[in-house]
Amino acid sequence: MQIRTDLAMESRELAGGLSGISTYTLQHGAIEETRVCIETEEAARALDKARGTYITLARPGLAQCLAGERLEMSRAIAEALRGLLPPNGDLLAVGLGNRHMTADALGSRVLEDLLVTRHLKDLPDESLHGRLRGVCAVAPGVLGVTGLETAEAVKGIVEHVHPAAVIAIDALAARESSRICTAIQITDTGIRPGSGVGNHRAGLTKETLGVPVIAIGVPMVVYASVIARDALGMLLQDIGMDEAAHAQAVDTLIGKLARQGMGELVVTPREVDELVGRVGRIIADGLNLAFQPHLSEEEIQLLSHDGP
Amino acid sequence: MQIRTDLAMESRELAGGLSGISTYTLQHGAIEETRVCIETEEAARALDKARGTYITLARPGLAQCLAGERLEMSRAIAEALRGLLPPNGDLLAVGLGNRHMTADALGSRVLEDLLVTRHLKDLPDESLHGRLRGVCAVAPGVLGVTGLETAEAVKGIVEHVHPAAVIAIDALAARESSRICTAIQITDTGIRPGSGVGNHRAGLTKETLGVPVIAIGVPMVVYASVIARDALGMLLQDIGMDEAAHAQAVDTLIGKLARQGMGELVVTPREVDELVGRVGRIIADGLNLAFQPHLSEEEIQLLSHDGP
Amino acid sequence: MQIRTDLAMESRELAGGLSGISTYTLQHGAIEETRVCIETEEAARALDKARGTYITLARPGLAQCLAGERLEMSRAIAEALRGLLPPNGDLLAVGLGNRHMTADALGSRVLEDLLVTRHLKDLPDESLHGRLRGVCAVAPGVLGVTGLETAEAVKGIVEHVHPAAVIAIDALAARESSRICTAIQITDTGIRPGSGVGNHRAGLTKETLGVPVIAIGVPMVVYASVIARDALGMLLQDIGMDEAAHAQAVDTLIGKLARQGMGELVVTPREVDELVGRVGRIIADGLNLAFQPHLSEEEIQLLSHDGP
Amino acid sequence: MQIRTDLAMESRELAGGLSGISTYTLQHGAIEETRVCIETEEAARALDKARGTYITLARPGLAQCLAGERLEMSRAIAEALRGLLPPNGDLLAVGLGNRHMTADALGSRVLEDLLVTRHLKDLPDESLHGRLRGVCAVAPGVLGVTGLETAEAVKGIVEHVHPAAVIAIDALAARESSRICTAIQITDTGIRPGSGVGNHRAGLTKETLGVPVIAIGVPMVVYASVIARDALGMLLQDIGMDEAAHAQAVDTLIGKLARQGMGELVVTPREVDELVGRVGRIIADGLNLAFQPHLSEEEIQLLSHDGP
């Protein structure tokens, strides 16, 4: 039975020394950047992740930190994105998830502070003339609410808008509760089927949409069964159980939890409503900085919804 | 200067005895049904409305009335819709407007209680087997928020979903404040450019989307300049001003108001937030009844989000 | 180390055969009623619960069940409350918790559908004349948001309003995840310090407020440490660990989890936002039925905000 | 018939040269400050306003202006408040109005960004030690929702909390639509019965609460009948109607409008939801600056909910 995680850096921890993967870690002030490159199909299969680059920016207590420190994270997001975005052309931001379910609302939340410019870029405003990159945004909702696969709706819009790239924002499931709202993953592999808190049935990838898809995700939940498994692991180590017996004991337990419906319960901080708002703002600022290289930080703040 | 109204029955009042128009009025209990058929291009131009059928269902105090009376209105909506819907095929409901602006939030509000079934209709649930019509729903947002023309987004989705018809729900501007939240207009002419509280730039019509478009609208505002003009009309009549002088006086005044920015101010009841919720529910129930003829009223209530 | 639960029926399960406690269980259709009476101070100390009566009404899948079944639960709540309410005098409903934090928002949610009548009961409406019991309602918020202890605010209002009783609604923490949103506890012991998802610092009791306090609570979360502990318990039983070693292993583990901050993480269903809305409505209907014995079910539905 | 306005500066315009009133106007950059002092009972009666000081800070396009300009307004609010606040003691902020009705939601909105400190001021945090003034906050709701007079609820809390002053925030009705969301009135006369968008039945004054009450209000609506009357006034002037005939014509019209229910309709900008958010933030920043003189602007931003 597979432990569910959407963070590549957590898969790496599970996989041990596998070939076809390169990783490195950098420290920028309080922010730790981990880059995982999955280079071969074998490695991709072993980790159950697509080939490509996964950048994770982590900072303990991210949502609680001060305004200046949050701006540092927004800049780090922008820096990471700049290496992945095509140099020209309109961009389409897609906020995934269900805005009525707090732990799955990150995507819609980010769009609230995103600087949307596609309809403005040809306006004869002298001060901005020629300096705005066209950005548009949609929050397509989830299948149970709309009756539409997210991929269907996005594909239809992509074919009319012809963006140079799609940037999809999503809430993720992690393996460690300490990652909730403290790590941001950016990847050029798009959104895979079955990933995210909302468990997307179809993916959003270059193959399905015909344009590059960059995915930005933040862990918002850990499945309750994962917490139980980790608790168990600690204990079995303490009591010196041998490895084979350990693995079997864990599998038996997970099976029991699943039969009790615990697999669908999620672990999340009590204050998740507030955290979504703060992390959403940090990401929106990061996107605005990356998307509008010809505007100053001040101009972006003045143009975005509520100023600084 | 044109008085802005999205209700065909109000245009008719303005136009007087014009040829190429047929109208009739029926009373069903407390509900008054007015049908306006615009049959010629001349009549269409004179009224600044597209050719087609406009059905208005009106009931004083609609939002305040009792549960049973609201259900009567939902049934009347369903009855009117049944005559306009294609007999077979999936339906796409489009909630127009801006959910963050109360007077323009009706479209999104209706979707909250709509029975979405397109992803369920092939489920092997015996009791429903073969009895669900496929319905899907999108709330594409407004240009200033998304950077996308509503028509672009809807066209893209229509091309992937291939619905038999689009049903678009929108908040309207009226000429009489007594119509706010008391009248519901249903038309087979779709959404015209420039109509609605949000002033759509592009329309949603059979010509642009390739499938029939039925529009359902409720007056939510009157423009302040219209109130001023009507107040003036009453007075000038009282003081016996002659007609030519009257018309000139009104035009002078409307010009002054426009220069003071009053034209953009809207008149709306203080409790509009609450009214949108109630009227939205009435319309959603009407759509559910019309869309699912093979389900009983009880089944619809049990399947829809919050039951009766 | 104490397992945190706000449900008396769960304390009872932990405590085993203790004297000074009487319990009984009744089945009303699909609803199971458990009554725990804590009769002595010794029993109260052993269970860490106040002396008094605790009624739990449980129904699997409560929030998902059909309209008619939900009404059955509302009637069962009303029946249980009738035995605890004073026969005459105004009633003050207090919605506890933080409306901005989903798992703690139940109290505010219930107030949205409560029939508030204290300002209406002297109106000369013939049809209602003399038949309304005066009900008022406050949602005082939480200390971190208001700077006020809930108990301070409620005490001040009680001294001006002089209600015959206070009815406080709160979100609870449980020990079993299967209880989340499926059980409703009603007690005449009021709200105790440290209880509820929001961990109230001061209590609301007859001693502090001077009038009877009836508390109505629904489990919305389980602490993550409890899930871990239960998972562990299952396993240790499987591997035949002896009881003393078991207890020590569990304590060691819980200590480790607490040091990792898992103790503050809560386990909750992903769709908790939706569940709060549905259970809140069930409770509001139950309160309305209990508070207004001289109105029919139909009259209550017509007077309450959105009808049936 | 009285024109309804809650702005003293508008009463003054109506009253002409009355004795017992002193006024002056100052320009601070783009902000115009108007101070009206009503010094005698005669003047108070003539203006239908209580004796005391009314400071209005006005800036065209306030809600749309840039971050730096908004901060200037917050500083001007703080400066005006400092002259009215008692030097020591806890402060109680009261957010009046109905948070479910957009045009009446300003009070609750301001509380969302207010720095609440009463429960923190004795914490042994070295950096803040002895520098925080105790602030607490309540949003008591409206009579129709709670069954409680606002004045009852606030009086009960005041008697328990013993604040040195109450600061009440409210949405106002104005006479000129150009004042909506562009002017902020600060007065030491408290809240009078019948004022505000919600039409408070009882007032909040030093007489009723026993402590000084400072009221802060922003015009959010103009009654539709006022718009009609003003439109009329313009026209009658144009056509050279004599003054007595004019007055009679206006009264006849207002009577007619009232009979049509237009008196209860309000005129408000379409984007009022957004404006309430922005003006609420400006006021909250102003209160935070005035309430916490021992904190720097930076510290206030770091402590307040979302930082700058």
- Overall outline of chain A: globular
What's the pLDDT, averaged over the residues of chain A?
85
Largest interface: A-C, 42 and 41 residues
In the predicted model, the low-confidence regions of chain A spanning at least 5 consecutive residues are: none
Specify the CATH homologous superfamily of chain A: HybD-like
CATH-defined architecture of chain A: 3-Layer(aba) Sandwich
Radius of gyration of chain A: 20 Å
* Count of spatially separate domains of chain A: 1
Give, in order, the helices and strands of chain A: HEEHEHEHEHHEEHEHHEHH
Count of extended strands of chain A: 9
Strand content of chain A: 15-25%
Distance linking N and C termini of chain A: 46 Å
Assign a percent range to the helix content of chain A. 25-40%
Oligomeric nature of the chains: homotetramer
- CATH third-level topology of chain A: Rossmann fold
Describe the largest sheet of chain A: 9 strands, mixed
Record keyword descriptors for this entry.
308 residues; Rossmann fold; 11 helices; globular; alpha/beta; homotetramer
Give your account of this protein's structure.
The structure is a homotetramer of 308-residue chains. Chain A is α/β, with parallel strands linked by helices and 308 residues long. Chain A has a single domain (8-220, 271-304), classed as Rossmann fold. Helix content of chain A is 38%, strand content 20%. The first copy, chain A, has helices spanning 8-15, 41-47, 67-82, 106-112, 143-146, 150-161, 206-209, 224-238, 243-259, 272-291, 297-303, and strands spanning 21-28, 31-38, 52-58, 91-95, 135-138, 165-174, 183-187, 213-223, 265-269. In chain A, strands 1, 2, 3, 4, 5, 6, 7, 8 and 9 form a nine-stranded mixed β-sheet that branches. In chain A, helix 4 links the parallel strand 4 (91-95) and strand 5 (135-138). In chain A, helix 3 (67-82) packs across helix 10 (272-291). The longest helix of chain A has 20 residues, at 272-291. Chain A is globular. The model of chain A has no long low-confidence stretch (mean pLDDT 85). At the A-C interface, helix 8, helix 9, strand 9 and helix 10 of A face helix 8, helix 9, strand 9 and helix 10 of C.
